[in-house]
Each structure stands twice: as structure tokens, then as C-alpha cells.
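Thread: NADH dehydrogenase (ubiquinone) complex I, assembly factor 6, structure

OP (GT): Posting the sequence first so everyone is looking at the same thing. Length is 301 residues per the record. Can we get the C-alpha cells written out before standup tomorrow? I want them in the notebook alongside the other entries.
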Amino acid sequence: MAARVVLRIRTHVWKCHTRRSSGQAAGYCVDLVRKRDYEGFLCTLLLPPECQNSAFALRAFNVELSQVKDSVSQKSHGLMRMQFWRDAVEDIYSNHAPHHPVALELCKAVNQYSLTKRWLTRIIDAREQNLDDRTYRSIKELETYAENTQSSLLYLILETLGIKDVHADHAASHIGKAHGIITCLRAVPYHSSRRQVFLPIDICLLHGASQEDFIRGRQERNVQDVIFDIASQAHIHLEHARSFTKRVPKTAFPAFNITVSLDWYLKNLRKADFNVFHPSLQRRNTLLPLSLYVQSWKKTY
């Protein structure tokens, strides 16, 4: 009898600890995304409540990987971090997630929505290859990286919405590529301050712009032409994504809320005459929450 009571107490304590740990893990993911991916945080809040925790876990996973490059001083340390996440994904699909808040929440999402493992591993592979401080050789190479990271994340978010549709996937592919290209543009001032330039070499050569031009923040015509061409490619991808609007299930639209932020950046970049260093582009869009709500209400992307 005593043994049964002890067993019940231990079981109750274990269940309480599990619920508490689970809540802490979910909170960790939300806080991480809010601090490191504020636009993604706002977009996730507009998803259906039942899939928000899973979407936060996916975005937190993406943040963890994206931070590796800037948080290590040696590539070998970065490779070790990537291997941890590679092993974590393998363990998650064996239902033995490591005791890490993001991994625990990701495991719940995988079990709940049968998320495609390929998209998770593709994000890891792309982030790992990007540990080398190597400039993109072409706009195509930048698009491939964006597809492997941002588009893969959108495919996973679509799965949490229960969307399996070829047109939605096509839209996600183009939006992800636009997102990756714009992220590259937005990072130019930061990278330039560290004497690094990652803009596609083929576009820079086309306009005769050197890395030193960007490092010194020169606003010559050829520098602006480089930014114009790259931004135009992002705009083309957004237009392609919207060409599927009538064929994409409306239940998929919440996954594409990030287009509000992408449109805002491109619009302000045009206003700044493609001066990627303009102060207006370094400020947070205070109207983003309202703009996201309006787009959500209009049911478009």
C-alpha cells in the first residue's frame, strides 16, 4: 500500500514537473523569437492559437541556428553547435528530444503535425555551409540560400496550418527567397561596419562596385545600382508569389504575413533612392503591428 502511495506521489510530481518544464520551454521560445526576430514574433501572433506554440518553436529553432555564425570566434565551434542541432533533430524524430527548451518544443510540434524532417535538416545544412565568411558568387547562390532557410521555414509553418498545397508551396518558395534577399540587404550596414560584404559578386561586377565602396558607405551611382538590382529581384519574387493568390488556400495566408515587413523595407529603400545606409532603414517600423492586422483582416498577402 505504502509503495503504491509513493509511486502515485512520484508520478504526480513528475507530471507537474513535466507540465512546468513544458510551459517554461514554450515561454523560452516565445521570448527568444520576440528578442531576436521581432517581425517573426508579430507574424506568429496572427496565426491560429492552436498552432502558435509550434510556430514559435520553429522560429526559435531558426533563430538558434542563425545566431551561431556571430556567436562563435572559430568555425570549429560553430560546426559543433550545428552538429548538436543535427543530432537533436535525429533524436526528436526518435522521440528522444535533448533537454533543451527549443528542442523540447520542436519535438512537440513534430509529433503534433508530423513535420517534414527534410526541411529542418535543410535549414541546418544551409546555415552550416554559411559559417564560412564567403561572399555569394551570384544572385542565384543567394536565392538558393534563401530557399534553403527562409522558404524551408515557411513550408514547416504551412504544415502546422495543415496546408499541403502545391500553389501554397510555390508562393512560400518565392516569399522565402524575397525574405532572404532583403535580409541580406538589411545586413549591409552591419557587415560593412565589420569590413565584410556579402552582396552577390556578379551584380557588383556588373556595375563596377568594389567591396571597399560598401565598406566606406559610398553613395555613388554604381553602388545604388547594385542595391537596385538586388532589391528588384526581391520584388520580382514577391510579385511571383502574389500571382498564385487566387489558387492558394486562404487558410495559408497567415503563414505569409512577413510580406508586410518586406514591402515596407522595399518601399523605404526606394524612398531613400536605394541608399542602403539611410537612417530611415535602420529604424523599427512602429506601424508594423497595425499593418499586419490590416493585411490579416483583408485576407491577402
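GT: Both are above now. Quick notes for whoever picks this up: The chain has one domain: 38-298. The CA atoms of residues 95 and 111 lie 8 Å apart.
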